[in-house]
Amino acid sequence: MFDNLSDKLDKALHVLKGHGKINEVNVAETMKEVRRALLDADVNFKIAKDFTKRVREKAIGQNVLTTLQPGQLMVKIVKDELTELMGGEAEGINLGGSPSVILMSGLQGSGKTTFSGKLANFLKNKKGKKPLLVACDVYRPAAIDQLHVVGDQIQVPVYSDRGNNDPVAIAKAGIAQAKAEGNNVVIIDTAGRLAVDEQMMDEIANIHKAIKPEETLFVVDSMTGQDAVNTAKAFNDILNFDGVILTKLDGDTRGGAAISIKSVVNKPIKFIGTGEKMEAIDVFHPARMADRILGMGDVVSLVERAQEQFDEEEARKLQRKIAKNKFGFDDFLNQIQQIKKMGNLKDLMGMIPGAGKALKGLDIDDDAFKHVEAIIHSMTPDERSTPSMLNASRKKRIAKGSGRSVQEVNQLLKQFDQMSKMMKMMQGGGGRKMMQMMGG
Ligand code: GDP
């Protein structure tokens, strides 16, 4: 996410980060480079210019050059301004209605249907809501099918009416059904076009007027940069929407839309989409995003994700197994599943301060665990629970079965062994031993 921008800002701020003497000349030079980095990220020219102007003014106001750590203060000013530019505080959505109606708007392909599903899933699992999805695209039957597929996947009901070509009537009927069935949130997916056109705008404006949603969200593909900002402006002029959803941030290396959109339409980014899976949704936190852009990681989000997946009962079971030396490859597989649920690996790595840069160029993908899983799946249940029984011929068989080399099998066994030892040590009073081992 935003790798290019992070890289360029990192280079621009290099001097200030304590790698040289700081004076008015190189502060000015740095600001010029920051501006260039923003422009390369497809941030609007005026926004980039104002941004560096504000940073400079703040720096002068705070007498940066006379402070003890001028570089760090400058970086902090850049971070604060970046946060402010993206919206300051995180904003939630209005769930005050009964039911709360959420209207989705945006171009075709922006990720509206996918996001409708993600939001329904999020509200169901994290907020205990009972959502109903409503399919209001009367032009593309495939869009209705797609929403049904999504609904089945997350087990959320979908209202559609294939014979009806009046989206206002469908939306109203959907809301009526929600009332009758006790659904307290209604998410209305609408038709989009490939570009802004009058008919689409009229249609979404009519739906908006007729149903008066609690929340109108504009969904936009982050990778489209300045176009995303222009489209946002067109939709906002008609709908005066409440918030922006930026999708496909996982593929966006530049970040121009994320940085510019708030100051152009003066509406907050509320959620981001970071992948095709239903779980790839995050509340947008401007400060955390600024940290990530500046390569400072996002430990808070990382811990939150870990906590979401953390199951106390499972953890206790695992502890007992470790204590009894019963930790086997099935438990290991389980752990891998849990990590995978936290999200795409590259994304997770990006949340570790400094890791993004260190791991740059490394091709980590969702399948990073594929080989390990294949090897474990080729083991018999006995072998998985008692790895010590793995002799040369068994290893050979496992390698053949998984399509990996014996070397790789050995490597995994070694890692597993080290991990088991470490876990055992970290248990009962082992913390001290561990510290000793690490020279503490
Ligand atoms: P709609 O026409 O606005 O309803 O868009 P869709 O929901 O059909 O999404 C268009 C394409 O973008 C689909 O292939 C989705 O899987 C993909 N997509 C949606 N959101 C994301 C995201 O956050 N990341 C990635 N990588 N792909 C996404």
UniProtKB/TrEMBL annotation:
Any Gene Ontology CC annotation: signal recognition particle
Annotated SRP54-type proteins GTP-binding domain residues: 268-281
Binding-site positions, GTP: 106-113, 189-193, 247-250
UniProt subunit comment: Part of the signal recognition particle protein translocation system, which is composed of SRP and FtsY.
Family named by the database record: Belongs to the GTP-binding SRP family. SRP54 subfamily.
Domain text: Composed of three domains: the N-terminal N domain, which is responsible for interactions with the ribosome, the central G domain, which binds GTP, and the C-terminal M domain, which binds the RNA and the signal sequence of the RNC.
HAMAP family registered for this protein in UniProt: SRP54
Designated name of the protein: Signal recognition particle protein
Organism, scientific name: Sediminicola luteus
